[in-house]
Amino acid sequence: MGGMALRLARTSAEAHLYMELHPCESCGESGFAPASSIVEAEGDLASRYTGSCPSCGTAREFTFRIPDEILLPGDEDPRFGDDRPSELLDAGEWLWLADALARDAPAHPSGVDAEDRQSARIDLLTAASALSEVLKFVPAGADAVPAEALWSGRGREVYAAGPGRFRRLRLEAVRDTYRDVAARFG
């Protein structure tokens, strides 16, 4: 028997985000421009990303299972996956991503040039999409993300800093706010 079953990357955006959040173990560099190929692994079709760390040259490789149905989200609809919760990133990592994207976006389009407006709009839509990913971890009938949906160090830190942020109603409210603000940049 092989090792752990391959985890599913629901979209290439999710695979790339995972790789970005898992920097080189030798030097900590998060930049990585891998070559990708489709391979068969453990009886499933998989995406394999291989390349060298641009800083220290360490060989890096990531292999993810590919979903049966490929989602091709567009710029106007930045989605990371289908209705299933992520197998790659935990609820806290998705919230961390939403925070990072929204933190840099201007609150209002006035005085912002067209290119920056478009960039802010996509960042806010992507932040809203990341919050939708957090919500996928809330079980039906529950009102918050359960503790077992936080398995990474970063995810647990985000949770420890503000457990109330993982409540369904709060997540929905913030997501809807990001969408509303994004619409102003349209």
Question: How would the blueprint of this fold be written?
Answer:
Blueprint (H helix, E strand, L loop, with lengths): L11 H10 L13 E7 L2 E9 L6 E7 L25 H13 L10 H22 L17 H9 L6 H17 L2
Antiparallel strand pairs: 1-2, 2-3
Structural notes for this entry:
It contains five helices and three strands; from the N terminus they run αβββαααα. The protein has 186 residues and is α+β, with helices and mostly antiparallel strands. It has two domains: 12-65; 91-184, no CATH class. The protein has a three-stranded antiparallel β-sheet, with no helix packed on it.
Instruction: Provide the spatial order of strands within the biggest beta sheet.
Output: 1-2-3
Span between N and C termini?
A: 52 Å
Mean pLDDT rating: 91
Q: Give the overall silhouette.
A: globular
Return the string of H and E elements: HEEEHHHH
* Share in β-strands: 5-15%
Number of strands: 3
Number of helices: 5
Q: Return the domain count.
A: 2
